[in-house]
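Input sequence (114 aa), recorded before submission:
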Amino acid sequence: MSGSKMYLPHYNNIYISSNKLKDYLLNLDHETGGSKAIYFRKIGFSEINIQEFSRQLMLIPQLNEISKVVQNHFGTKFIIEGNLDVTGKTYPITTVWFIENQSEIPKLVTAYPK
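Predicted structure, token format:
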């Protein structure tokens, strides 16, 4: 259908593991997440406000259209760009979500500065 907006399927079922945030996106010592942790901590997120970080990440697929879809034999990956709002400032980021085959639960894979 031409002109229709495409949002993350089942976005009301989004799952973000607290470990994904704490041990990956906010972990300065993580091998691949460390640079992301520097960014997210610099803009104001930490273990102290991890619930707010999670809430804002969950809003991105609800408010923004899908930028790219990649399918594989395990399921479908969705790339969605959006913004984090911290103390009146807006920070553009890219989020990656994955829905396994036969599932209706989008899971956060990663997020990084745009």
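Checked by second reader. The two ends are 29 Å apart (CA to CA).
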